[in-house]
């Protein structure tokens, strides 16, 4: 694993838990973790249970005892590490967004395909049992033709103007703001559930343009840089919020919103899909439930039913606890890495992969271009 903070913790925990719940076709062994800060990476290795640590990620890639490289670094390091890993014949799994630009994403896909390694992109929310069940209902045609998808990813963790200018707010490190960080998740869910985007019109906004210098500490917390002189500040050069409309290839109409300025919404990832025969709704903050409405329900009894997706019949749910015993955020990663392990053991493609990463990156690029040009942008032209 390269990197070890918020996502490093989520991934390491998931790898360790896989054998607890699943008979996967391969079992992860935490061989090595890399990070530039020796004290930090040593402590991560100890806490997460890695056998060794390195202060240069290239050393992990050179090692013969390592088969898979997992990238949980800030976004500007994804491409270099993924391409080096794939070129060395290692399977690669990468946090989202796949890359800083569409061009980088394409290079990553090309490198992985050229070596025939398994590649995976960490859109973990696809792996909530209720989301997988929603996919099954749509695939079975239970909603019929899809008319609408509306999705929101609402957060509020940078609303305080004194929250520092961390890497997630600096374009050269992160690529974009709420767009690549959280709109990426909802557009990936829309592609997973509804289909491909055709064209987009968007707006982006940066509400607070200057912040004190600082660094992420743990989770989504940050501290001011210890060495700054006086009240040194820097310019925020990414979006705080974005909103866009989309036409899908299959004719569906989409409405999307992602922001870090929706007070009271800590991690509000939700969607609603309306089809000719019914609707479904899901919200991460109530992630075990799927709300389902069918137009052919008996008159007088029509209404949204709340389905608790913890039964044996619900994807992945049977691996955990008896029905009604709920699961959480971390289980989305366990399910995702279970698929990665099976894919590697059987040398078959897994999803979402770098191809999805390229398609998602094209949508992100179209959102950015549309916001600049104030015009509709066709995703295929990116
Ligand atoms: C911060 O916005 C963040 O941690 C994202 O980076 C994750 O991808 C998302 O799942 C939760 O919020």
TrEMBL record:
Per UniProt, the keywords (alphabetical) are:
Oxidoreductase
Q: Which domain of life is it from?
A: Bacteria
Q: Does the keyword S-adenosyl-L-methionine apply?
A: no
Q: Which SUPFAM superfamilies match?
A: Glyceraldehyde-3-phosphate dehydrogenase-like, C-terminal domain, NAD(P)-binding Rossmann-fold domains
Q: Which Gene3D superfamilies match?
A: Dihydrodipicolinate Reductase, domain 2 (3.30.360.10), NAD(P)-binding Rossmann-like Domain (3.40.50.720)
- State the Gene Ontology terms under molecular function: nucleotide binding; oxidoreductase activity
UniProt cross-references to InterPro entries, sorted A to Z:
Gfo/Idh/MocA-like_OxRdtase_N (IPR000683), Gfo/Idh/MocA_oxidrdct_glycsds (IPR050463), GFO_IDH_MocA-like_dom (IPR055170), NAD(P)-bd_dom_sf (IPR036291)
Q: Which residues form a coiled coil?
A: none
- The Gfo/Idh/MocA-like oxidoreductase N-terminal domain covers which part of the protein? 1-120
The record's Pfam families line, in alphabetical order, gives:
GFO_IDH_MocA, GFO_IDH_MocA_C3
Q: Residues in domain GFO/IDH/MocA-like oxidoreductase?
A: 132-281
Q: What is this protein called?
A: Gfo/Idh/MocA family oxidoreductase
Originating species: Alicyclobacillus mengziensis
């Amino acid at each position: 694993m390269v990197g070890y903070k918020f996502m490093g913790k989520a991934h390491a925990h998931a790898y360790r838990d896989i054998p607890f719940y699943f008979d996967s076709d391969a079992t992860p062994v935490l061989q090595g973790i890399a990070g530039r800060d020796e004290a930090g990476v040593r402590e991560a290795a100890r806490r997460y249970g890695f056998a060794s640590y390195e202060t240069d990620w290239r050393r992990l890639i050179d090692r013969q005892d390592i088969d898979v490289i997992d990238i949980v670094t800030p976004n500007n390091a994804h491409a270099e590490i993924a391409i080096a890993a794939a070129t060395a014949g290692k399977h690669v799994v990468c946090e989202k967004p796949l890359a800083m630009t569409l061009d980088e994403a394409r290079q990553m896909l090309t490198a992985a395909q050229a070596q025939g390694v398994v590649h995976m992109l960490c859109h973990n929310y696809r792996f909530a049992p209720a989301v997988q069940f929603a996919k099954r209902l749509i695939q079975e045609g239970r909603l019929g033709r899809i008319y609408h998808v509306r999705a929101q990813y609402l957060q509020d963790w940078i609303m305080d103007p004194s929250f520092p200018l961390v890497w997630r707010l600096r374009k050269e490190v992160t690529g974009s703001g709420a767009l690549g960080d959280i709109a990426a998740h909802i557009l990936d869910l829309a592609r997973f559930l509804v289909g491909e985007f055709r064209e987009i019109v968007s707006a982006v906004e940066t509400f607070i343009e200057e912040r004190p210098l600082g660094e992420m500490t743990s989770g989504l917390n940050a501290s001011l840089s210890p060495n700054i002189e006086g009240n040194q500040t820097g310019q925020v050069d990414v979006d705080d919020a974005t909103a866009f409309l989309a036409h899908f290839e299959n004719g569906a109409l989409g409405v999307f919103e992602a922001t870090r300025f929706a007070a009271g919404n800590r991690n509000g990832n939700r969607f609603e899909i309306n089809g000719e025969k019914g609707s479904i709704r899901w919200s991460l903050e109530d992630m075990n439930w799927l709300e389902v409405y069918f137009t052919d329900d008996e008159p007088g009894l029509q209404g949204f039913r709340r389905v608790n997706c913890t039964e044996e019949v619900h994807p992945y749910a049977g691996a955990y606890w008896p029905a009604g015993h709920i699961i959480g955020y971390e289980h989305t990663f366990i399910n995702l890495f279970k698929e990665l392990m099976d894919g590697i053991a059987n040398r078959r493609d897994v999803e979402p992969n770098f191809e999805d990463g390229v398609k998602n990156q094209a949508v992100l690029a179209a959102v950015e271009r549309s916001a600049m040009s104030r015009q509709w942008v066709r995703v295929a032209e990116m």
